[in-house]
Amino acid sequence: MFSQATIKSRFFANLARFCAGGSSYSAVINHLRRSPDADVREWASWVASKAHDGAEASLAWRPDLFSVLDREIVSSGEHSGHLAEAFHYLSQFYVFVAKMEGRLYRGLLAPALLLLGGTAVLAVFQSIISGGMHSFWIHFGPPIFAMGLTIAGIFLFVRWGIREAAKNTHTDQFFRHLPIIGSAWQRLAESRFAWTLSLRIQAGTSLIPSLELAGNASRSALVQQGIRQAAAALKSRCRADNHTQTSLAEILRRQRFWSPLLLSAFSSKESLHQVAEILKVAKALQKDAILRLEQICNQAPKIAFFIVLLLLFGKIAMLFADLNMHYKGILEKL
After folding, report:
1. Total domain count, the chain
2. Hey, what's the torsion of the CAs at 168, 174, 180, 181, to 10 degrees?
3. What is d(CA 276, CA 281) in angstroms, rounded to the nearest whole number?
């Protein structure tokens, strides 16, 4: 049983491979309906009815499978003539997501089993001292219930945060200021923005509409707000192309939340060179974010293991305290 991220990575990889060969999107979808990969074959059949309307329309047909991010990236690639690149970008993104999910699950399995086994053993000793299975469940149940509640809470919080950060600036700012995670969060949002912006400009879309579409693709409320403000300022100050570009760099710099690397891409006065720089920066930001998230996924199991050990040592201390009181009671009776 594969996660949705794993299936998406394979589906988009197949789309990228065949579209890069020059085949039309509808022809590629029809070809993938006969793929030996059962999951790819099934997903292709789900979007086939709308494939003749284009990639963006077919993905929008299944919002339960394809997120707003998927549709924005594909739309940018489709309008710019770089559809294969868009599919490749999404394939690599979901390969990374699936990889991180697997690493986290495997890494957190050992601390979870240690907590489960250690709590069970200590609860058995506690029940022997206190007497009866009732005591066992009193000491075994709450820690396991708390562990399940904590895991479910973290999962729901992350899902809620990702959804809310796309429309609430306060939530977005909260995640940006989290230690370790915040910098990766910002870089992923800016990478999506820069990558989409470069494709939109290459497609011939004017700067201001390109900015607005790229802001939506970032899935960051703070980026969207900053871009709306920048677009409004550009509309009032736009007189010449090179003046517009200079103004954009100045406006974004004043907002004080953009990374210096992205700001440097807007400093060029040559439009072709600027687009190339934006795309280059998008790839650099994504690579940096992935490296940071990989470090987090490597450290998270170690932190969880340390916390579990602290909890078990705490229960051992409580067990010895109960044992001491038990033997004191026996000695007093004697």
Report:
1. 2
2. -30
3. 9
* Interval 78-103: pLDDT, tens: 888 888 988 988 898 888 888 887 88
3-class state of residue 239 by DSSP: coil
Q: Which of 69, 91, 113 is the last residue of a domain?
A: 91
Confidence of residue 1 (pLDDT cuts 50, 70, 90): very low
Q: Is 272 exposed, middle or buried (0-12, 13-18, 19+ CB in 10 A)?
A: exposed
Contact 226, 257 (CB under 8 A): yes
Q: Specify the CATH number for the domain of residue 13.
A: 1.20.81.30
> Across 27-41, 85-99, 291-305, which has the greatest mean pLDDT?
27-41
Which tokens belong to 77? 């690639």
d(CA 28, CA 19): 7
Is the model's pLDDT at 126 over the cut of 80?
no
Residues 103 and 80 in one domain: no
- Using CA atoms, how far apart are residues 261 and 87, in angstroms rounded to an integer? 25
Q: Are the C-beta atoms of 195 and 90 separated by less than 8 Å?
A: no
Q: Residues near 144 by Cβ (< 8 Å), separated by ≥ 6? A: 115, 116, 119
d(CA 201, CA 148): 48
- Find out whether 245 and 251 touch, Cβ atoms under 8 Å: no
The domain boundary residue, chosen from 91, 110, 137: 91
CB 247 within 8 A of CB 235: no
- Shared domain check, 144 and 78: no
**pLDDT digits over 176-209, tens only?**
888 878 888 888 889 889 888 888 888 778 888 8
73 and 110, same structural domain? Answer: no
| 214 pLDDT more than 50 | yes
Q: Which DSSP letter does residue 48 get?
A: G
**31-53 b/e with 16+ CB inside 10 Å = b?**
ebbebeeeebeebbebbbebbee
- Can you tell me which residue has the tokens 């979007």? 47
